[in-house]
Amino acid sequence: MENTIKRTECRGCGKFFVGTSVFDEHRIGSYGEAIHNAKGNVTGYTPHSRRCMTEEEMRVAGMDCEKKLVHIIIEGKNTYEEHDVWFMIAWRARAKSATYGKQTDEDEEEDNDDA
Ligand SMILES: [Zn+2]
User: Fold this and answer.
1) Span from the CA of 43 to the centroid of ligand 1 (angstroms)
2) What is the pTM assigned to this prediction?
């Protein structure tokens, strides 16, 4: 099956991504940083504000989405579902120009559009 990707789905917002590195990019905010006093003891934590970017924020961050068949294994069976899948525009361009044919990021798809 051509033009398919493995599933990287966000359980927060339900969006699909070409890889975990792109997934990481859409998660922003703090996990809650430790606050130290003068002696270096932890006195508290900043608020946990980890969240998903909105689609608007993702586009501003240089991401885009396209319809792709996503490879999903359900009870041991290979299944393909069409979803909007997000990717980093710059990363894709870089992968195509500089390191095509050489696997540098195991999460990055092979995109063989012979247009
Ligand atoms: Zn998300």
Assistant:
1) 31
2) 0.67
